């Protein structure tokens, strides 16, 4: 359906996206994962025909959209990261406006508006002015606007940023439902790996403008097949212990949080006794040491040496 | 495009405060500085020492002046006025002479002195004629003066003169000056804050969302500019209508012409606002730059005071690239000087040219990011 071929965007000497290759098949939910500044938003701006690439091509049903974007635009719904709504208008007026610019009229427009309001759960609040909505409601309406013209492809740029867990779950469930019931293709970008894990069939991981991994969830996690992730927890971590682990030759990657250290080591290595000895030497009382099932977060850590949310 | 206009109109109905505030400020400033201070006459404090003077032609002649407004007061009060700078010059009138007391030496002092001297000369000329005629009774004297006045009213030839500050002069009328000046000044803000949403909508992703719809980009620009034009023009229309029919300001018979002639100015200001919007990166920058530009435009464009009093060559040169200069030139030309439309084609053409150039540059700069 949609294919990116060596897509590159350079701002002066800085590459925002470098040689990105991607494809999206009809009916898939594709995740584009990466930390802030990875180049996800630039990539989706290019693939939705909003920004001209410096090099490469975007193909929709095997036709380049760079010169003729109309075909893609007609069947694409965009959910931008920002709340792209008129705050002084009601939900209904916003939908009416976007419906009109998509040439929807009369009974057809009304039917679509009712459907969308029902889907995003705002039917009872349709007459309220958007600026009085909560963050989660605005996000839902932001998605609703993109669904109004019944698109085949929805591109969602971090649609759950800054909202409460309840609204986030509602949005994730809505995306799942749209895909399952209407066979809508979804490109979902996020830096929350649990969202991508929950939603997506296939995942692309970007960092600093480069594609660093791609495949199904299992494919990606298999990158870690030669390694295992160990979680070390203590009530109060101390600098001496952290320093010793960092300098240990068998530890490949380390991520330090307040009460937890996550390390990666080769699968065949048995490091438990060494860890306990290091804790004793550093006068540290450990509360647990455990091997974890690898997550996408671990894969990202493995590939970049940094956490997704750094 | 209709959809965009509808959405804008709804937002205006829901939130008309920017429009109302700037319209109100234009009306308020024009009222305070124009209508209430509408007299051109210069106030001159006068102290009359000899009461007998009140019945003479000296007083009647001085009071008849349209250039100076004589305000009678005690000598001490007059001196206080001069000391405080409330008046430039005062006059003490005595039976056989007068005294001019100068607070600030200016051209007005000589004008006042000249007027008082003329009044005394006329009075004593009359007295000398009466004395020379050897009239015995007062009735005969009055009759002689009457005959003399009659013959003066029907002279062999007349010389018509006008003063720069008198009400029958057309050089400077503060009512039109402040009405036009503040209308053209405040409409810059109303228009600019209607063009600004292009920038905010771009930053908020709304613009991109509309670009991805079947609406053409030119329709988006035209809709935004049309709406800004509508609101800007409406503001000027409301102000002019209020002054014409509410306060009875006579536009010297050119009221409907002014409504037509204001169009090129509104167009040029929309273009200027578009250019500013294209040059700034965010709303904060826009809010910082707009007052600087608008106030500078008003100062060198003749909105606050007549452009003729600007003396610096550099400022005069700058005023030539200022739309407000030409807006004032058009309105003053039509209403104050009664110029025909043909006479005003030059400033009209410049405003249209400015508008086209600024829109071209503005849209080009805005579009650098987009396909």
Brief overview:
Chain A: This is ABC transporter ATP-binding protein. The complex is a heterodimer of chains A (310) and B (371). Chain A has helices spanning 40-47, 70-74, 91-101, 106-119, 135-147, 165-182, 193-199, 217-221, 239-247, 272-281, 296-304; strands at 2-11, 14-24, 29-33, 55-60, 63-64, 76-79, 153-157, 185-190, 202-207, 210-216, 227-234, 251-256, 260-266, 286-292.
Structure description:
The complex is a heterodimer of chains A (310) and B (371). Chain A is α/β, with parallel strands linked by helices. Helix content of chain A is 35%, strand content 29%. Chain A folds into two domains: 2-217, 3-Layer(aba) Sandwich (Rossmann fold), CATH 3.40.50; 222-304, Alpha-Beta Plaits (2-Layer Sandwich), CATH 3.30.70. Chain A has helices at 40-47, 70-74, 91-101, 106-119, 135-147, 165-182, 193-199, 217-221, 239-247, 272-281, 296-304, and strands spanning 2-11, 14-24, 29-33, 55-60, 63-64, 76-79, 153-157, 185-190, 202-207, 210-216, 227-234, 251-256, 260-266, 286-292. In chain A, the strands form three sheets. Chain A has a six-stranded mixed sheet with strand order 6-7-8-3-9-10, with helices on both faces. In chain A, strand 1 (2-11) and strand 2 (14-24) form a beta hairpin. In chain A, helix 3 (91-101) crosses helix 4 (106-119) and helix 5 (135-147) runs parallel beside helix 6. The relative contact order of chain A is 0.14. The model of chain A has no long low-confidence stretch (mean pLDDT 86). Chain B is mainly α and 371 residues long. Chain B has two domains: 2-37 and 172-366, no CATH class; 42-153, Periplasmic binding protein-like II (D-Maltodextrin-Binding Protein, domain 2, 3-Layer(aba) Sandwich). Chain B contains 15 helices and four strands. Chain B has helices at residues 2-14, 17-35, 57-63, 75-83, 107-132, 138-153, 174-195, 197-203, 206-211, 217-246, 255-279, 283-301, 313-319, 323-335, 345-366; strands at residues 42-48, 68-72, 89-93, 98-102. In chain B, helix 2 (17-35) runs parallel beside helix 10 (217-246) and helix 7 (174-195) packs antiparallel against helix 14 (323-335). The chains are: A alpha/beta (310), B mainly alpha (371). The A-B interface holds A 45, 48-52, 66, 69-70, 73-74, 76, 78, 80-86, 88-89, 93, 97-98, 100-103, 129, 145, 149 and B 2-4, 6-7, 10-11, 14-15, 203-206, 208-215, 369-371. Chain A: GO terms for molecular function: ATP binding; ATP hydrolysis activity.
């Amino acid at each position: 359906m949609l294919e990116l071929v060596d897509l590159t965007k350079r701002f002066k000497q800085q590459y925002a996206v470098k040689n990105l290759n991607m494809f999206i098949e009809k009916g898939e939910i594709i995740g584009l994962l990466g930390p802030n500044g990875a180049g996800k938003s630039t990539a989706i701006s290019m693939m939705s025909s909003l920004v001209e690439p410096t090099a490469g091509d975007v193909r929709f049903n095997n036709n380049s959209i760079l010169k003729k974007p109309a075909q893609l635009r007609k069947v694409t719904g965009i959910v931008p990261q920002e709340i792209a709504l008129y705050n002084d208008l009601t939900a209904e007026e916003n939908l009416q406006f976007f419906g009109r610019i998509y040439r929807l009229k009369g009974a057809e427009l009304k039917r679509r508006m009712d459907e969308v309001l029902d889907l995003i759960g705002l039917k009872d609040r349709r007459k309220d002015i958007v600026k009085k909505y909560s963050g989660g409601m605005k996000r839902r309406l932001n998605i609703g606007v993109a669904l109004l013209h019944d698109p085949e492809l929805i591109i969602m740029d971090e649609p759950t940023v800054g909202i409460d867990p309840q609204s986030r779950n509602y949005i994730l469930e809505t995306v799942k439902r749209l895909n399952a019931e209407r066979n809508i293709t979804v490109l979902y970008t996020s830096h929350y790996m649990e969202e991508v894990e929950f939603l997506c069939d296939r995942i692309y991981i970007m960092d600093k403008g480069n594609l660093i991994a791609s495949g199904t969830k299992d494919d990606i996690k298999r990158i870690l097949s030669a390694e295992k992730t160990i979680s070390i927890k203590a009530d109060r971590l101390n600098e001496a212990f952290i320093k010793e682990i960092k300098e240990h030759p068998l530890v490949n990657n380390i991520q330090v949080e307040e009460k937890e250290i996550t390390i990666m080591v080769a699968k065949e290595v048995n490091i438990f006794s060494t860890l306990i000895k290091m804790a004793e030497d550093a006068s540290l009382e450990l509360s647990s040491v455990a091997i974890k099932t690898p997550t996408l977060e671990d894969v990202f850590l493995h590939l970049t040496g940094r956490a997704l949310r750094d | 495009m209709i959809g965009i206009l509808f959405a804008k109109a709804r937002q205006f109905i829901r939130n008309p405060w920017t429009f109302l505030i700037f319209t109100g400020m234009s009306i308020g400033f024009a009222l305070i500085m124009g209508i209430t201070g509408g007299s051109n006459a210069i106030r001159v404090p006068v102290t009359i020492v000899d009461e007998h003077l009140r019945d003479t032609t000296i007083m009647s002649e001085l009071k008849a002046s349209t250039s100076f407004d004589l305000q009678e007061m005690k000598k001490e009060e007059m001196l206080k006025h001069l000391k405080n700078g409330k008046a430039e010059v005062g006059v003490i009138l005595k039976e056989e002479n007068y005294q001019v007391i100068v607070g600030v030496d200016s051209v007005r002092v000589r004008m006042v002195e000249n007027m008082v001297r003329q009044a005394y000369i006329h009075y004593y000329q009359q007295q000398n004629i009466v004395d020379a005629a050897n009239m015995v009774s007062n009735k005969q004297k009055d009759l002689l003066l009457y005959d003399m006045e009659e013959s003066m009213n029907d002279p062999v030839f007349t010389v018509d003169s006008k003063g720069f500050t008198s009400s029958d002069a057309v050089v400077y009328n503060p009512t039109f000056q402040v009405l036009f000046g503040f209308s053209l000044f405040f409409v810059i803000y109303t228009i600019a804050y209607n063009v600004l949403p292009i920038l905010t909508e771009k930053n908020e992703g709304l613009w991109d969302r509309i670009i991805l719809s079947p609406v053409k980009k030119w329709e988006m620009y035209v809709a935004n500019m049309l709406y800004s034009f509508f609101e800007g023009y409406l503001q000027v229309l409301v102000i002019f209508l209020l002054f014409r029919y509410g306060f009875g300001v006579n536009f010297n018979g050119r009221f409907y012409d002014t409504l037509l002639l204001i169009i090129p100015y509104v167009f040029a200001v929309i273009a200027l606002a578009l250019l500013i919007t294209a040059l700034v990166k965010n709303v904060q920058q826009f809010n910082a730059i707009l007052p600087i530009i608008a106030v500078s435009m008003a100062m060198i464009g003749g909105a606050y005071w007549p452009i003729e009093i600007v003396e610096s060559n550099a400022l005069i040169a700058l005023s030539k690239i200022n739309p407000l200069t030409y807006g004032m030139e058009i309105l003053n030309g039509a209403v104050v000087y009664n110029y025909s439309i043909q006479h005003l084609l030059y400033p009209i053409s410049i405003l249209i040219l400015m508008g086209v150039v600024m829109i071209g540059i503005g849209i080009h700069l805005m579009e650098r990011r987009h396909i």
